[in-house]
Predict the 3D structure of the following.
Amino acid sequence: MSDHDPLTRAEHSMVPGGAVGEVLRLDEPLSFWGGLDPATGRIIDRHHPQVGESVTGRVIAMPFGRGSSSASSALCEAVRAGTGPAAILMGEFDEIVALGAIAADEVYGVLVPVLVLPEGGFDRLPTGQRVRIGIDGTVYSN
Amino acid sequence: MTFRLGARDEARLAGEEGPGQQFAMRLVSRAAEAMGAKALLDVVGAHVDACLYLGPATLDFAERLAGAGAQVTVPTTLNVSSLDLIHPELYRGDPDDGRAARRLMECYEEMGCRPTWTCTPYQAGERPAFGENVAWAESNAIVFANSVLGARTHRYGDFIDICCAVTGRAPAAGLHLDEARRATVLVHLDGVSDELVNRDVLYPVLGGLLGRMVGKEVPVLEGLPSGLSEDRLKALGAAAASTGAVGLFHVVGSTPEAPTLEAALQGRRPDSVLSVTPADLRSARDRLSTVAAGALDVVSLGTPHYSVEEFARLVELLDSRRVHDGVVLYAATSREVLNEVSLRGWEAILLTAGVRIVTDTCTYVTPIIDVAARTAMTDSAKWAYYAPGNLGLEVVFGSTEDCVESAVAGQIVRDERIWSDE
């Protein structure tokens, strides 16, 4: 168990699992398809406020996903290329994102947990903070 | 978990129907748990988007499933791929990527899917009935199936689509359920002119605005003429599913779950009420363009794939004129619609006019457009939304009339009058 108090706890673990990483809190939703370069793990959507940031190995927090059915493939491709995030924390259910993580686990054996946080959960996760996610969906500072 | 599988689902999960069913069922059951579903339900058909080559992961997944002997158990159509097999010379991409894309297409054919290669299966003969559960991917197809046909599909993405097709099962959650189909946001049109509501160009613009306004809520629109055409509803939905995550919308008097406002709201009050003004529409229309005037290299029509009626309009607007030498005009469609267009004698007319017809794919998902092209025009809000990022082009949105006039003139021509306040 951690020595630290929990920061927040997932309301629902869409894809349950543990992870450790530095938080990247996205100010706007990101479409993995067209918005993320799987070769580099960097955000390439020119309209996104965090364009140029890398998601690789980080715990990314975003309120919700966007549009395209192809987002599952784009996330899975990033995981295959070794540029994927350590975990994804969302403000609402997004099964297209979750499916990309499930497929990556099934095909490559790399698990990227996808959790839905309760209201206010994001405010406790500033960019740059290192966190550990327990298997039960609890997020601790690390 | 409170999640329960049926006896046959359990048997499949245990491998009793072979490794293909086992793999697909594991993915469907994990998806169901992710979605918080309590059970699975039967689907009568599927539409698969995972056949578009987006890198080695898409092929690894398909080869794993096809290699395990998976076969679809319900009629399954395929979305656009990365290649136009009818006009292969259009592909300008890397040959290795082209071979991988072709192999991906073969994997899905081996699993028993129909090689339809279209994002508009609903205009190529695949029309699930009102109330039927299906598992469709591709955001424009999802929103059309739910909103216009009254069939029921959740917003499925790549991988789960084919696994539902193989198992014939889907999570009993989301838009399959009555409760999730209730309109939560009432959207009024406020002071929008009759002239504008009777123009095709309103509908993609309104859809783009709607997606940004409502995100993933279910909107109901009031104040539009009743009996809107399928192509107008198609354009509206495709745009709303691009700028937002809309999987179902209602239009009072036009869509089957909204014979009245009360029906769409399922007898309850809306959670919120929003209005759309002429100024909102003008600014939504402006947001779809990165340039407004000047030289033009490409015109792209047919996102989603053009219908027979949309081709009829294109032939009429061209009126025997030729596309300017400095412009390439692409019109994308399904094989089914192209066949119909050809039987009516329009294919020859379009080719003579200089139109390049694209099938099986779309100009913003694969390298078809010359990389030297700088500015493109489209009548599609969806294409306008994705093309600047995907292709690095400047984009100008216009009506189909504007697109044809511009293609003939060789430069951007737009009718600004209907967007003015008067």
Notes: The mean pLDDT of chain B is 96. The longest helix of chain B spans residues 19-35. Chain B has three domains: 7-176, 182-286, 289-419.
